[in-house]
Structures are given as structure tokens and as C-alpha cells.
Amino acid sequence: MTGSTVRDRILDAVLVCVEREGLNGLALEHVAATAAVGRATIYRQFAGGRDELIREAVRRELATFWSGLAAAVSHLDGLEDRLVLGLMIANERISHHRLLQKLLSSEPEELLPTLFESESEVNVLLRRYLLEMLARQPLRAGVDPDHAADYLARMLLLHIGSHGRWDLTDEAQVRRLVRTQFLAGILP
Amino acid sequence: MSAALRCIGRWGVAKSTLDDIAREAGCSRATLYRLVPGGKAALLERVARSEVQRLLASLEGVIGEAATLHDALTGGLRATSAFINESEALRTVVAHEPELVLSFLAFDRLDPILAASAQVLGPYLERFVEPSLAAELIEWCARLVFSYVFEPSAFVDLAQPDHIEALVSAYLMPGIEAADAAVIRC
């Protein structure tokens, strides 16, 4: 068995156990039993124990979320179209993510710090992605692509999970939001 | 409440205990519990809410007196930045435990603040744009403040007036023009 599959199996087991017992109640023995490995194997893979297990499970979920989002919009060419569809899908997936919603209502104080620990990594990847998108099209005169990518990454994250007065399931509204607040200052 | 703010300014949120706050306020822990059942979390929530209200009230004048939409937005952002800078408690939190605020206002927990901001301040922009765009603009600014304050950017520092000016000119004003709603005067 390769290292990565053992790790994945253990992290799968973490999600199962958290779903069942909550983050606070997560017990290493239960993870080991669910993954059908010994405790020693868990410690060999995740030397930091329980905290590292949770951190790595969150990090893997985030990576899956964002790469899934990138894949879901990859058939579209334009930045505007990708942002519109990306925002809609992201919000739909978040509201249907059972484990996330459950933890947000039952144990936010356990979940959120771990989630935000990984957010700076997300930020870096997101900015890089947006910068590549920006390089493909003409920008307004005087726009600095790095600044624009930083701005867009913030705007995206600010609208994921927090809809404010927008109905982010309505494509017409999302397009208006993206055209005015996201892109008006960036694209000609 | 002001005792809680003083404690937070001195030690941060995580290290301020109810005992500290009771001592600072010159009352007993029991009195504190009677006044704010629900302990530290409830107290923090009340303090946060009253600070947001205080900020919004101070912005009413700034935005209400502005001559143009551009001035209303830059003035509002500048006053918000000054408000944060003048609050020892907020300065401590921004410097040492920003993730605490990010968590506190993560996902849809930001929505009540956005709604309150739009409700209080939106009407002052209705001199310049139609009501729904006014509310959108206030929410937009509130989101940007939240982001730039608690997640510092290499490009925008709201403590610098010229950064605010650039943000308004480069992003907000084009967005308002694109919203093609009736901009009466800007």
C-alpha cells in the first residue's frame, strides 16, 4: 500500500468520525478503527496526532473544493463567465456541504480557526489563478494585474457563504454583481 | 462594556477573562453574570454589536454631509479607518488576533452587519443613486473594509488616504457607472 492511499484512508476516516462525533469528540482510536489501521500507523503518517489529522483533513477538503470549482468552470473562456458560474457553484456547494454546515452550526469555534489557518494557502493559489486569467485578456489602462488579482480574490472570498443582499442562485443578479463590483474597474 | 474594551485593548480577546473585566468595571463576577448571562461569548457579542453601532452612527454625519458620491465613499472609508485606529481594543485585535474576527464573522455571520450597515447608511446615498444601488454600495464598502482591515493587503492600506482615494476611483466609481442606474450627481 502506498503512503498516499494510507493517508487518504485515514483522512476519509477522520471525516466519517467527525460527522459522527463532532470535532471536539474526535478520538484517535475511532479514526484508527474506521480506517482499519493501527494507532501507530496514524502517528507514523501524522506525527502531530489529532490536531494534525484535523488540519490535514480540512486542507484536503479545501483543495478538493477549489480544484473542483476550477474544473467546473474550465469550459468557459472569459473571466466574467468563470466568476459568475464559479460564485454560483461555490455557494451552492457550500450550502449543500453537510459536514461543513453541521460543524458551522454546532462547533464553529472548533472549525473556523483551522479553516482560516489554511486560508492563506487558498489565497495564494486563488491569486495565481486569477492572475493567469487576467493575463489572457486586455485590461483597462493603468490596471496593475497583481493588484487586480488581489482585489478579485478578496471579492470572491467575501461572497462565498455570505450573500448579503444578493440572491447568488440567480444568474442575472450574480452577473450584475460581477460586472459592477468585481470587474468594472479592471476590464475595459 | 467600556471595561471590556479596556481589557481587550490591553490583553486581547483570548486573554481577557470575565474576572479581569469585572475587576476593571469595579463589580463582582456575579454582577457581571447577572447583567450579561451567557458569559464571555455573550459579552463579546454585545461589545462587538455596540461598537458596530457606534461606528455606523459616526458615519451618518460624514456620509450625510458629503457633497458628492465620491466624497461620501472616500469620507466614509477614511472615517472608518480612523475609528478603528482610535480604538485601542480594535487595534489590539487587528494586530494580534485578526483570525478571531475572521472566524467570528465567517460565512453568513457577516450578513447581519452588512444588512445593518445598508439599513443605517444606505439612505444617505439615496441623494446620489437609487435606493437599491445605495444599499449595494454600502454593503460593498463594508465587505472591503472587513477584508482589508483583517486580512492586510500588499496593495491597499486603509490607513493611507491616497490608497482609499485610489480604491474608490479605480474600483468603486467604475462599478457605479457600470450599474447604469441614475447617478444624479458625482
Describe the structure.
The complex is a heterodimer of chains A (188) and B (186). Chain A is an all-alpha fold. Chain A folds into two domains: 47 residues, Homeodomain-like (Arc Repressor Mutant, subunit A), CATH 1.10.10; 129 residues, Tetracycline Repressor, domain 2, CATH 1.10.357. Chain A has ten helices and no strands. In chain A, helix 1 packs across helix 4. Chain B is 75% helix and 0% strand. In chain B, helix 4 runs parallel beside helix 8 and helix 8 packs across helix 9. With 186 residues, chain B is mostly helical. Chain B has one domain. The relative contact order of chain B is 0.12. Chain B is built from ten helices and no strands. Chains A and B meet through helix 7, helix 9 and helix 10 of A and helix 7, helix 8, helix 9 and helix 10 of B.
Brief sketch in words of this structure:
The complex is a heterodimer of chains A (188) and B (186). With 188 residues, chain A is mostly helical.
Helix and strand run of chain A = HHHHHHHHHH
Q: Proportion of β residues of chain A?
A: under 5%
Structural class, from helix and strand content of chain B?
mainly alpha
Shape of chain A: elongated
How are the SSEs ordered, and which strands pair?
The complex is a heterodimer of chains A (188) and B (186).
Chain A: H1 3-21, H2 28-35, H3 39-45, H4 49-73, H5 79-96, H6 98-106, H7 108-117, H8 119-135, H9 145-158, H10 171-183
Helix pairs in contact in A: 1-2, 1-4, 4-5, 5-10, 6-7, 8-9
Chain B: H1 2-11, H2 18-25, H3 29-35, H4 39-65, H5 69-86, H6 88-96, H7 98-104, H8 111-125, H9 131-150, H10 161-178
Helix pairs in contact in B: 1-2, 1-6, 4-5, 4-8, 5-10, 8-9
Features:
heterodimer, A: mainly alpha, Tetracycline Repressor, domain 2, B: 186 residues
